[in-house]
Amino acid sequence: MFKKGLYELAKFTAENFDTFLISTYIAGVGLSSLAQTAAIKHNNKYSNSEKKFMIKQEWSDAGINSGLFAIITVPLGKLASELVETGRFITDDCRNFISTHAPEKINDLGKYETSITKILKKLKFKNVKPQDIENMIKKCTTVKNSMATCAVVGGGILASCVLSPIVRNIVASHRHENSTTIKPQTSNTPVLNPNPQNKPNTEVKPNIETKPHRFDDFRTRTTGMKI
User: Fold this and answer.
1) What is the mean pLDDT of residues 64-82?
2) I need a surface site. Which of 64, 106, 137, 199 has the fewest CB within 10 A?
3) How far apart are CA 80 and CA 154, in angstroms?
């Protein structure tokens, strides 16, 4: 059972290597984030708030990496595969084979509805050796898988090395701004005004007599003499 499973996996990988690359990359990113999360949780040098922030950042980066990788590589791989399947990009051997055994189909190569595999399979009704048809289908399939793999690798480099760092920096900058923004706090404690405008004047002023005095009164008080 185990050997059969490995054989089926190897067969699938050989026939769909582009899909295998995408799957293993996403799985690798997920496992790496799990390991990083476990390391952060068991590190006593960080506080709980720091751990929470770092774990969120780790999974945010993982989502961006795997998401951009899949968004770019899957369409590119399908496009490259379709270009070969429709006959727009095929080897000279395949073109000559079709031209020899099905010349009426040569003008259909490159059209959207054309399928090289279907054209080759229909040649069995024209007294073409089944082994030759099978060999040509394998060659076309190999070219198709190779084109799709090259497209996935090129798209993966673009996503991982160019687009992903840009998007991660934008997201991290946005999260950092939100986490460091200080919101104004309102308080129910009244603010004391040192100089209120409507405060009643309760200051006690000294009672200073300002009654005018005559000079004779001053002499009488100082000398005791009255005039």
Assistant:
1) 94
2) 199
3) 11
The neighbour count for residue 62, using CB atoms within 10 Å, is: 19
- CA torsion sign for 192, 195, 200, 204 is positive
Residue 48 Cα distances to 21, 41, 44, 177, angstroms: 37, 9, 9, 20
Q: Is the pLDDT assigned to residue 70 strictly greater than 90?
A: yes
pTM for the whole structure: 0.69
**How far is Cα 73 from Cα 16, in angstroms, rounded to an integer?**
14
Answer whether residue 26 is part of any domain.
yes
In the chain, the number of structural domains is: 1
The answer to the question of residue 134 being in a domain is yes
CB 225 within 8 A of CB 219: yes
Q: Is residue 95 situated within a structural domain?
A: yes
Cα dihedral value 101, 103, 104, 106, nearest 10: 110
Which tens digits make up the pLDDT trace of 156-196? 999 999 999 999 888 888 877 776 654 444 545 555 555 55
Encoded amino acid at 190, one letter: P
- DSSP annotation of 202: -
Enclosing domain of residue 23: 2-42+63-180
